[in-house]
UniProtKB/TrEMBL annotation:
GO molecular function: FMN binding; pyridoxamine phosphate oxidase activity
EC class name: oxidoreductase
UniProt organism field: Inmirania thermothiophila
Cofactors that this protein relies on: FMN
Upper lineage: Bacteria, Pseudomonadati, Pseudomonadota, Gammaproteobacteria, Chromatiales
Keyword terms, alphabetized: Flavoprotein, FMN, Oxidoreductase
SUPFAM superfamilies: FMN-binding split barrel
Start and end residues of each Pyridoxamine 5'-phosphate oxidase N-terminal domain: 27-141
Binding site for FMN: R45, V46, V47, L48, A49, K50, F60, T61, K67, Q89, Q124, S125, W169, R179
Name under which the protein is recorded: Pyridoxamine 5'-phosphate oxidase
Family: Belongs to the pyridoxamine 5'-phosphate oxidase family.
Stored PROSITE patterns: PYRIDOX_OXIDASE
Gene Ontology biological process terms from the UniProt entry: pyridoxine biosynthetic process
């Protein structure tokens, strides 16, 4: 089947995010991202989807974080969106790849300076002795970069989930919830309904 089905699924995903925003959600691009460690133990946390394209759903993070280390060792993830005002869910699963350096630089440049400094100051998910330590690190970074541009840290970049499966769920008052799945099979995309 045609790759047009992938475009269709991505367009549905992007449209759902915008419908959820229009319905009042503040961060409809928030998605729960599941990864597994080297022993196969799962962990899940919310990240923000920053761009939905044929080559993947992107998010940006600290490359030393547990999630990034999981993905370096086991490059598969599933992300799940739930839009409460819409009573809809979408899941995207696939292989995870790094975005290009140019793309990471471009997104970094779009971030407010305070967040850039915050990324430098954070040793994401490592134990923090107290808040003052973080504030001192932030001040040290502000002093280090002065008035000039803040370069992207070597430990910060973007990852993209290259979709192999995209599933949409829509709640139904009679519990006959609608589920539609787009999946890559033998090099082609298929669309099928699933029992709720
Ligand atoms: C709404 C929301 C958005 C978030 N967005 C991101 C994000 O885009 N990137 C990120 O690294 N962490 C983000 N976080 C923090 C993560 O949920 C998590 O605490 C952090 O990345 C550490 O995860 P890890 O220890 O599993 O690597 C977000 C949290 C929330 C609640």
């Amino acid at each position: 089947m045609s790759a047009d089905l992938l475009d269709e699924a991505l367009a549905r995903l992007a449209a759902a995010i915008e419908r959820a925003r229009a319905a009042g959600m503040v961060q409809p691009e928030a998605m729960a991202l599941a990864t597994a460690d080297a022993e196969g133990r799962p962990s899940v946390r919310v990240v923000l989807a920053k761009g939905v394209g044929r080559d993947g759903i992107r998010f940006f993070t600290n490359l030393g974080s547990p999630k990034a280390r999981h993905l370096a060792a086991r490059p598969w993830a599933e992300a799940c969106f739930y839009w409460d005002p819409l009573w809809e869910q979408a899941r995207v699963a696939g292989r995870v790849e790094r975005v290009s350096e140019a793309e990471a630089d471009a997104y970094w440049a779009s971030r407010p300076r305070a967040r850039q400094l915050g990324a430098w100051a954070s040793r994401q998910s490592e134990p923090l002795p107290d808040r003052a330590t973080l504030e001192a690190r932030l001040e040290a970074m502000a002093a280090r970069f002065g008035e000039g541009p803040v370069p992207r840290p070597p430990f910060w970049s973007g990852l993209r989930i290259v979709p192999e499966r995209i599933e949409f769920w829509r709640g139904d008052p009679a519990r006959l919830n609608e589920r539609e799945c787009y999946r890559l099979e033998g090099g082609g995309w298929r669309r099928l309904l699933l029992y709720p």
